[in-house]
From TrEMBL:
E.C. designation(s): 4.1.1.36, 6.3.2.5
GO biological processes: coenzyme A biosynthetic process; pantothenate catabolic process
Catalysis: reaction(s): (R)-4'-phosphopantothenate + L-cysteine + CTP = N-[(R)-4-phosphopantothenoyl]-L-cysteine + CMP + diphosphate + H(+); N-[(R)-4-phosphopantothenoyl]-L-cysteine + H(+) = (R)-4'-phosphopantetheine + CO2
Annotated binding of CTP, by residue: D103, K112, F150, K164, K168
GO molecular function: FMN binding; metal ion binding; phosphopantothenate--cysteine ligase activity; phosphopantothenoylcysteine decarboxylase activity
Source superkingdom: Bacteria
Name this protein carries in UniProt: Coenzyme A biosynthesis bifunctional protein CoaBC
Gene name tied to this protein: coaBC
Co-factor: note: Binds 1 FMN per subunit.
Function according to Swiss-Prot or TrEMBL: Catalyzes two sequential steps in the biosynthesis of coenzyme A. In the first step cysteine is conjugated to 4'-phosphopantothenate to form 4-phosphopantothenoylcysteine. In the second step the latter compound is decarboxylated to form 4'-phosphopantotheine. Catalyzes two steps in the biosynthesis of coenzyme A. In the first step cysteine is conjugated to 4'-phosphopantothenate to form 4-phosphopantothenoylcysteine, in the latter compound is decarboxylated to form 4'-phosphopantotheine.
UniProt cofactor(s): Mg(2+); FMN
Whole sequence portion shown: 179 to 402 of 402
Keyword annotations from UniProtKB, A to Z: Decarboxylase, Flavoprotein, FMN, Ligase, Lyase, Magnesium, Metal-binding, Multifunctional enzyme
Pathway: Cofactor biosynthesis; coenzyme A biosynthesis; CoA from (R)-pantothenate: step 2/5; Cofactor biosynthesis; coenzyme A biosynthesis; CoA from (R)-pantothenate: step 3/5
Single GO cellular component term: phosphopantothenoylcysteine decarboxylase complex
Length: 224
């Protein structure tokens, strides 16, 4: 961790970023995922590297290039992401949860579901809330020192995002209105509002995901 000495405002800091949508198996050949492209999280990893941080990117398979210099931890399921995040955040300064984590997972069938057996009745169970688990861990250990969440909402953006910030004990919530065509899933641009624990709201202009990433990293730098 200290072998490669680099300059920049986040030199010597460890930043863990999650990216992509989790993949939850239904059976050995099928899965449930979501529309997250991994672009915003990967851009945040790049921006943190550019600021000189040591960066671990915990990502589902996105097809995106891994930012040069990041440590990649490949995961698929919400459970794998939880395990990786708890391990990596144990000595991290900042956790940034840009990933879209499944809230429910199918109880997977051991064998491939056969068409002839008819329409399957898939049973779901809840996944763990990673940020909630991180908040518990942090209360006990002090690590990660800070955590940042994303909230993609299709309605009541600011209210929903602010209550998630409180519920998940975040230092910053990046609220993302996915009802607009130029923001959110798959596209290269994003329009977000930064929400702070004191209730302050900072809307950012619609811009490239790289620009949103830089604004988030600026906030990390401001924490010192
Ligand atoms: N998140 C998480 N673990 C989960 C689900 C979400 O850590 N099992 C994180 C996401 O990575 C994101 C933040 O929590 O940073 C908010 O995710 P979101 O899906 O908006 O919130 P939920 O609490 O799952 O609420 P809902 O989906 O019902 O809106
Ligand atoms: Ca959710």
């Amino acid at each position: 961790r200290y072998l490669m000495s680099r300059g920049g405002p986040l030199a010597g800091r460890k930043v863990v970023v999650t990216a992509g949508g989790t993949q939850e198996p239904i059976d050995p050949v099928r899965l449930i995922t979501n529309r997250s492209s991994g672009k915003q999280g990967t851009a945040v990893a790049q921006a943190a590297l550019d600021a000189g941080a040591e960066v671990t990117l915990v990502s589902t398979p996105t097809g995106l290039a891994v930012p040069a210099g990041a440590k990649l931890v490949c995961v698929k399921t919400a459970q794998e992401m939880l395990d990786a995040v708890l391990a990596e955040a144990a000595d991290a300064d900042v956790l940034i949860m840009a990933a879209a984590v499944a809230d429910f997972r199918p109880i997977p069938a051991a064998q491939k579901l056969k068409k002839a057996a008819g329409i399957p009745q898939i049973q779901f169970e809840a996944t763990a809330d990673i940020l909630a688990a991180v908040a518990e861990r942090r209360a006990a250990t002090g690590f990660p020192r800070r955590s940042i969440g994303f909230a993609a909402e299709s309605q009541d953006l600011l209210q929903n995002a602010q209550s998630k910030l409180e519920r998940k004990h975040l230092d910053l919530m990046v609220a993302n209105d996915i009802s607009a065509a130029d923001a959110g899933f798959e596209v290269d641009t994003n329009r977000v509002v930064l929400l702070f624990p004191d209730g302050r709201q900072q809307p950012l202009p619609m811009q490239e995901k790289a620009g949103v990433a830089e604004a988030i990293v600026q906030q990390v730098i401001a924490w010192g």
